[in-house]
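Please discuss these two lines.
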Amino acid sequence: MIRYLLLFLFPVAALAQKDSLAPVSLSEVVVISQKSPLHKATKTLGSVDDYLRGAGPVDMIRRGNYAWEPLINGMSSERSVVTLDGMRIYGACTDKMDPVTSYVEITNLARATVHSGQSGSSGGATIAGSIDLSRRKTGFGETQTGGMAFAGFEVNNRQKIGGFSLFHTREKFFADADVTVRDAENYRAGGHREIEFSPFTKYNVSVISGWKPAAHRELEASLIYDKAVHVGYPALPMDVGRAEALIGSVEYILHHLSESVHAWKTKLYHNRITHVMDDTRRPDVPIRMDMPGWTQTTGFYSLLEGASRLHSWKMNFSGHTSHSLAEMTMFSGTPGEKDMFMLTWPGVSTHYFDFYREDLFPLSEKITAALNFGLAAHRNQVGNDFGLESLRIFYPGMNKTRTRLLKRASSSVQWRNNLLNLNVGLAYGERAPGVSEGYGFYLFNSFDRFDYIGNPHLKNEKSIEGNIAAAFKRKNFSVKLSGAYFHLRDYIIGRPDTTLSTMTIGASGVKIYEQLPYAGILTTNLETAYSFTSQWAWRGRLSYQRGTGKGAGNLPLMQPLTYVSGLTFTTGRYSAELTLNGAARQNHFSPGFGETPAASYHVVNLSGTAKSGAFLLKAGVENIADTYYSTYTDWNRIPRMGRNVFFNVIRSF
């Protein structure tokens, strides 16, 4: 322990894309826009995953080298909400191989706003927190046309990155468009060990435009098309032949409606996701399978923002309808023997309507109180009769529909002066079971090697949350301590049922989703920063999580003590960054989930930036020592990338 505390006190270079002190709450904004001439991210053309894993409460579950699953406060994606410009999007993979973050690119994003727990739950009912990805748009202004071309290369997996962005602005019109292509081969872990089945190819096209028909009135339209092919997942028994998304929206915005109502935004959107798992590239499998999945979501939101002499406020009324269908075909290798077919998601429709209100009250010059609450109606309907009858094998007489009422509320008080800020909050939230938890049919989990069956009779999961954040800041020094405790009732988790037979060859058994009476999760985060001079600065962080459940022991995917430490030098057109990051041994793991202890590790990275006229060059070396390691979020302890040299070049015009 002392060793890691000493490392933390060593000069550090921070995750420079975020401000650790403003606001002092369990929320952070990760800046992604490429407009800064000396963009401070380690890899300017890194993936969205690279950016998000630097935010305080966020880590990423990694099943390969593509499409990592966001993990907020040690809780997987069923307990969080991820939106794109406020739009709800549902992945179409039963194995969570296509999170929402996989269908966008950093070239069409401006920022990611991360909320912990109920601190900003306008996107919908949540337990762990939320992430809202905001699109990059030039906006209205003087007549101007420009853009950038970019290219990148990573030596380890021979990843090629290329594309361009264009924009045109006028007083009453703007348009932004960009195209990004990525292509990577198998990567190599430390010691030059090739990790088979880890390549990917990805294409992303994004367009957004706006028109101002009159003063204080705007109309915007946007479209994203994203397609990934031949995506390998070495931690899983299957790969992905195709992952495809089409995401569109139209938004109408009114400004300055009155002295107290400042803006009214109304958006209509639709998205369609297709995800096809297959094992055709695997040379030796017990039985060939195809597992396609589809989701379609149509929704809206209407957001009002305003302020009066006494307080500022925000109201959001939203709703969406989503349809989820997934199937599995096992191909017989025996002539004349029939293939086996089943619906793993039985055509489940989710109808969701939500009202949310947020108020901010200045009680004095130093004290501010914040209140928010939300109420949602959630309805599931099983639309496929074959799938319904399959589930009725386990739940005779189950209804086709289930309607729930989901409640959430939070309050906080912030005290601040010139040097010290303190924020204390209390919150309550509920969530409905996810489609897999409620209606999944023989979903194989390769981590614990169990088949999972959903339970439509699950109750709402509930959370009581307490949080605190304290920050001290002087001219050249700052420190921030934040933490939260979640007391979860009716905690949803898979439990073995020895009376059932497996469907997957080699599976260890069958688990049914059940509920623990309660579980508890503690998260803590300590950040410091110090500027020696205008050129030299350091920043660092310690994080830790602990989770247990009644009758289940340790909860899975809990973060051991992790740290970041490094040094930044900036002068004129040049900058350099040296970082050390690592973790202590994970001793509190969950054998019932298939976890084994994650060993301690430390990794050193070096990067540099140069700006010359319209050119921006970023180069660096990750994992300089070529360390062979894996982290607590690496599925089946798949090793991380070894030494990797990268180059990013951007040409603005």
Q: What stands out?
A: The longest helix spans residues 2-9. The helical segments are 2-9, 48-52, 385-391, 435-439.
